[in-house]
Amino acid sequence: MNEHAAEALDAYLDAEHLAVPHAVLVEGPWGSGKTHFLKKQYVPRRNERLHEERRTQTPFVFVSLFGAKSAQDVEQRMFRAASPIEAAVGGLVGTLFLAVGGLFRMADAAKEGRDKVAKKAIERLNDCIFVFDDLERAEREAMGEIMGLVNALVEERERRVILVADETQLKERFISADWQLRNEKIVGRRIRIEPAVGDVTKSFVSDLVDGRTKTFMQGNLDGVLDVVRRSGATNLRNIGWGLYNSRRFADCLLTDSTIPEQHVVRTMLVVLATTLGLRENKIDERDFEHLPGLSHELAMESFRQRNGKAQENHNERANAVAFSRQFRDLDVESPPIDYSFIHELERSGVLDGSAVIAWLKKQFAFGEERSEPSWRRLWHSYKAPRAATEKAIEDLASELSRHEHTEHGIILHVTGLALTLEQAGDRRLTREETVVAFFERYIDDLVADARLPPSPIEAFRRPEESYGQLGFSSMDRAEFKAISAYLQARGLERAESDRKLRAEHVLAQAEAGNLDALQRFYLQDESDLSKRPVLHYFDIERVATLMTRDFPELEAGRTLLAYRYHDIYANHPLTVELDWARSVVAAVDRILDGWVDPHRFMAKKALRGLLTYYEKDRDPTLRLLANPSTNDEAAGLLDAGEPA
Question: Fewer Cβ close by (within 10 Å): the C or N end of the chain?
């Protein structure tokens, strides 16, 4: 606990008379736990001490100033925080509409129903310690009024006031409001809060509802604290999210008694480490693509370097390497849970418990009703009885004949196993066909049944690494490389087909009136649509017709064309669309020629002006308006200034 802060607050609140009326500022960076310290630690401990000393406990009223627009707004928030019941009643009879300072100047005698409510609320407000939280998030123009209200409270009403804020942000955000001049008279003490990582972690676990998950986390609290500390996280909100995510997974896995406790422990700790890494921006989703088999891969590269081969660039794997070394004891390169489940919980807040447990049982063969996959049993046959190996070959051959396996990693793993067996003269897995012919036909069958998962280039990174190098002793053979390339090509075809369908859906939405849907073609978080060529599949007249329905459609269309291509370069994937885009602009121009002025002039000026602005520093060979007409410039259709 921040003992220095508790002592300073006690001295402020216990003083019978303040020599100089003032407020105190509890300050620290965002996420350092200022509010948590006050609500969860300081106030309960103070009240307990006052109770033991048989002293009156003055209530604390916490008032958030987030978005506060005026002193009157703050007064209403104070009213609601201190007297929620009276606020509910008063809201019905109009007591919430008061002038600045009115809450403390309202006469006790007035109309009967409303005044009873108001009097009771005012009496309660006159006997409170006010804690104004999120001061830096109040509206800028309201800062003068808010600090005036605080000044009135400490000077005229002799109330104790605690302000809570990140003073660094206060100075930056309210520089024009002269924060230093406004607060120097009012803020008499500053109390710095340091992140109490251990306290917050323990509080999170102790505050859980009694049950198996709480008992489980309490029993493994030392491990949880160790991961939090090693992560280096100091933002208590991020730590809270990490603990929340790890609790969700623990709660899920504990529902199935067939999952070993140690697996649940490791899952909980890996989820905690992963979430903290993501929240603290030390890793991102792409970094996790490098984790499986990373140490083995680096060792092989080091071996090749010692044998005279050039060292590869490791920069793109730096975060993954750091994360792996930081949590080597958790074996994050072979995680107990698929990282995609953690990412999905981070994105959506939803954890599909049945899918998580099903994945675990399939991957690790937990539960009596399941056995280790045949392809994994075959790889480990060197330490199994010969009869078990024969059974694994028989099972896997049967599964392949039914086309059960669709994942890229498993297909490549089984390819490697088939090549190994073929070297020994055993072609049972491929039903006596050559390995290449069998797996090319196998992949084609999956494509024909629409069962082969799409594989965009971004996600198609060494899928064999997802299987811990199992079965890839044959990966340097020409046959293996041929199947790997064929699988990638067919997967990319599926990805392209899916992308066309999604693009068609977006355009149909725009044609139905949802013009915002077109943003998906240039937003960064829609990279599969915004960074991959797909628009050139659309009919040019269809897009031009949409853009020339009216000005809103033209605005959406010209923004799409300007934003989508604004940062392209030679050999950029989207360059294949440029001829299509130029044809769209020409078609739009032609249709606009049929509009009457001033609409024709305004529409053409808007279209060409925006495109010219975004293309002004671009290679002429990559522009949509490759040779802007001097006639257009003379006619005022080109605008070199910034877009409106």
Answer: C
Question: Which contiguous run of DSSP H or E holds residue 536?
Answer: none
Cα gap 460→170, rounded to integer Å: 46
Q: Quote the CA–CA distance of 248 and 217 in Å, as a whole number.
A: 11
Mean pLDDT of the chain: 81
CB distance 267 to 273 below 8 Å: no
Of the ranges 120-124, 172-176, 432-436, 620-624, which one carries the lowest mean pLDDT score?
Answer: 120-124
d(CA 277, CA 551): 46
Residue 112's contacts (CB-CB under 8 Å, 6 or more residues apart) are none
What amino acid is encoded at 313 in this protein? N
- What tokens does 185 get? 């008279």
For helices 112-125 and 71-82, the axis angle rounded to 10 degrees is 90
Q: Which conformational region is residue 133 in: left (phi greater than 0), alpha (psi within -120 to 50 degrees), or beta?
A: beta
Return the HEC string of 125-171: HCCCEEEEECHHHCCHHHHHHHHHHHHHHHHCCCCCEEEEECHHHHH
Phi, psi of 523 (to 5 degrees): -75, 140
User: Can you tell me the distance from the alpha carbon of 416 to that of 481, in angstroms, rounded to the nearest whole number?
Assistant: 10
Tokens (6 digits) for 516: 């915002």
Query: What pairs with residue 131 in β-bridges?
Result: 62, 162
Cβ distance 233 to 279 under 8 Å?
A: yes
Question: Of the candidates 159, 162, 86, which has an alpha carbon nearest to the alpha carbon of residue 128?
Answer: 159
Q: What pLDDT score was predicted for residue 589?
A: 92
3 state DSSP class of 505:
helix
> Do 264 and 216 touch, CB atoms closer than 8 A?
yes
3 state SS of 188: strand
Give SS3 for 16. coil
Q: What is the pLDDT of residue 55?
A: 84
E strands along 175-309, which residues?
Answer: 187-192
**Residues constituting the chain:** 644
Residue 24 CA to residue 162 CA, distance in Å, equals 5
pTM for the model: 0.49
* Contact indicator for 614, 572 with CB cutoff of 8 Å: no
First to last CA, the chain: 53
- CB atoms inside a 10 Å sphere around CB 296: 13
Q: How far apart are CA 205 and CA 216, in angstroms?
A: 10
Strand-pair category, 60-64 with 187-192: unpaired
Distance, in Å, from the CA atom of 489 to the CA atom of 577, rounded to the nearest integer, reads 21
What are the DSSP calls for 263-315, one per residue?
HHHHHHHHHHHHHHHHHTTS--HHHHTT-TTHHHHHHHHHHHHHTTPPPPP-G
Name residue 23's beta-bridge partners. 187
Question: How far apart are alpha carbons 218 and 207 in whole angstroms?
Answer: 11
